[in-house]
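Hello again, I could really use a second opinion on something today. Take your time with it, there's no hurry, and the full record follows here:

___
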Amino acid sequence: MIAVGQKLPNATLYEYMDEASAGCSIGPNPLEVENATAGKKIIVFAVPGAFTPTCSEKHVPGYIEHFDAIKAKGVDEIWCISVNDPFVMGAWGRDLQVGKKVRMLGDGSADFTKKLGMEFDLTTRRLGIRSQRYAMIVEDGIVKALDLDAPGKFEVSDAASILKQL
């Protein structure tokens, strides 16, 4: 499993864009982790799945609520990662009205999640491979803090906990 002090593994995540911009077309766009974290301070948090109760009612909304305070601590971006495709992540972001506060990134095949050692096998429950619930502070691609919730818990990866560490 990834640890504090280690560099994030490179992988390609996908983000659904509702509006075209310089270098990004409408629809799914690739995001190379190594390039996207270079020179930036980023909060990365992961959830087991889009549209799930705790994730939709508490986890993502907490980062939206604390966005201004997190940005005031020098954070460049906040990423939400889930083992879902970018279309689902885009729809979930619209549903939660994240706007430009949280980047909703799909890791559809769990490549990044597996490289981190954060996969959670729920195939016996017909949910496939998912991500464990965690949050990390990343600076220039290096993990500076990592908080992993126990299975079924939501105690340390919330926005308020990360804000205290910043």
